[in-house]
Amino acid sequence: MNRSTSTTTRWLSATALLGIGALALAGCGRSDSPAEPAASAGAAIDDSPAEGTIDIWAMGNEGEVLDELAAQFEEQNPDATVNVTAVPWDGAHDRIATAIAGGQTPDVTMLGTTWVGEFASTGAFEPTPEGVVDPSAFFEGSQGTTEVDGVSYGVPWYVDTRVLYYRTDMAEKAGLEAPETWDDLTAFAQAMVDEGAGSGLSLPPGGLDSSLYLLPFVWQAGGDVLTDDGSDFAFDTDAWKTALEYYNSFFTDGLSENVRLETGEIEQKFIDGDVAAFYSGPFHVSLLKEQGGADFEDDFAVAMVPGDQSRTSFTGGGNLAVFDDADNRDAAWKFVRWLSQPETQVQWYGISTDLPSVQSAFDDPVFADDPYTSVFGEQLADAKAPPAIPTWAQISAVIDQEIEQVTRGDKSVDDALASIQQQAEAIGTGS
User: Fold this and answer.
1) Using CA atoms, how far apart are residues 161 and 289, in angstroms rounded to an integer?
2) What pTM, to 2 d.p., does this model score?
3) Which of 41, 51, 234, 252 could form a disulfide with 79 if both were Cys (CB 3.0 to 4.6 A apart)?
4) Protein fold of 3-161+314-384
């Protein structure tokens, strides 16, 4: 598998496939049983060299290439050995759940960001102890993916976010620059359709993962999934109505074709000019360069997502968590700490193309001087993730279905949001 394909698979797995797998642990509805008590953090981690064997599970491409980086840790800690087990994404969720149930866990595991809430509720992870990391070193949205009820379980390891990919040549022909506001985005999409594009902005019209495209519009409109105090769902609010109406306008106004384009399809349509803009993560830069050829590189660019009250985007990625019953707990946390150092994360990008979770790493010229990665670094300063609740997979599946009902014209926005609110309340937060 080449690096571009691996990165694509990782993004799709971390946002979509993992969410489906979460249903197995989250259950099918509101639970009357209280969640397991949270584990307590152990002793602070000192600065002495790590010793002993550290077992870590890592998914997808990360599991395939982590040995290369781990060898450097072993050189700096000669009495330590890192054993990496590569776990396929499609079986990772169930494997972790089975290991927890059977008490046969490694020391450290990589987690999709949407898994933290459900697994932390089992009491399987140790909260991050003192001396490991400074939480403020990470992007706020990424750090938030490790936290459940104000307690951090592990650290963000790498991050992904979505930005706007757009055809610069088509925009220049229409006399437009990268859109910054919703009004700009609508005008941009209309101009691109007038220039012959089938979709001025390609959006999924519902189905799997479409909730993760709608959520940024909700955040940009000042809304969120939960109320401010976290006590209830907030789908029946003005912000959600504003966001879903705006999202749907791209279909009702003919600015986005009512066709779901998957990775593998959207690239060629973008290159051909049939799609003028779309939202995606960093992996698409290399895909477009490879598929479009040298001449195409000057015809597209990336920009921060346009916004309303904010320009907030979605953030995902992978976290690292240490199990509460880890055999080599101290060394495990020392390895996690080392992986979180800015210089290590810059090296890791060169190996894996994973974007750093530590903000200061983006000061390195490899990011700061690059017209693509620098934009992703800027976007990560205004990016959020869904709430870390055990039932998020079930909730997002409901949203996916209701989006499709709206874009097909089978249900009004008001009715769809009322349905989401009702179903979400029946499902509960799982906490």
Assistant:
1) 19
2) 0.88
3) 51
4) D-Maltodextrin-Binding Protein; domain 2 (3.40.190)
